[in-house]
Each structure stands twice: as C-alpha cells, then as structure tokens.
Amino acid sequence: MRKEKAENERERLRQEELKKNALSSFGDGVKKSENGNLSDLTGGVNWKITLSIIIVLILVFFIYTIFS
C-alpha cells in the first residue's frame, strides 16, 4: 500500500473528525466563516442538512416577499 502524502492524511483525518462531531464542527465553522472559509462551515454537515437549510432560507424569503 502506498504511503499517503502528509497533506492528504491531514485532510482525511480532519474530515473524519468533522463527521464525528458534526454539531460542534458546525459551530466552529460558523466562527471560522468570518474569515471566509466556507468549507469549514459546511464540512461537518451532510448534503441533506445543507439542502434543507437552503430550502428553508428560500421559503423564508418568499414568505417575507408575499407579506411585505
């Protein structure tokens, strides 16, 4: 088996840690997002949760537009 590059190994370990602690990772990501790194914000969240958040934001926008 080929030895993994150090950079790839660090990224793999980081992703595993994000998956294990999704909620705390999300909070850390929100804090880090102020620096502009979106991958840390969504790294611990799977695609279904991300899609749900987008749909909720769109619905809130439409409801706001209708009632204002």
From TrEMBL:
Membrane-spanning intervals of the chain: 49-67
Origin: domain of life: Bacteria
Taxonomic lineage from the root: Bacteria, Bacillati, Bacillota, Bacilli, Bacillales
Protein keywords: Membrane, Transmembrane, Transmembrane helix
Origin species: Brochothrix thermosphacta (Microbacterium thermosphactum)
Stated name of the protein: Phage capsid protein
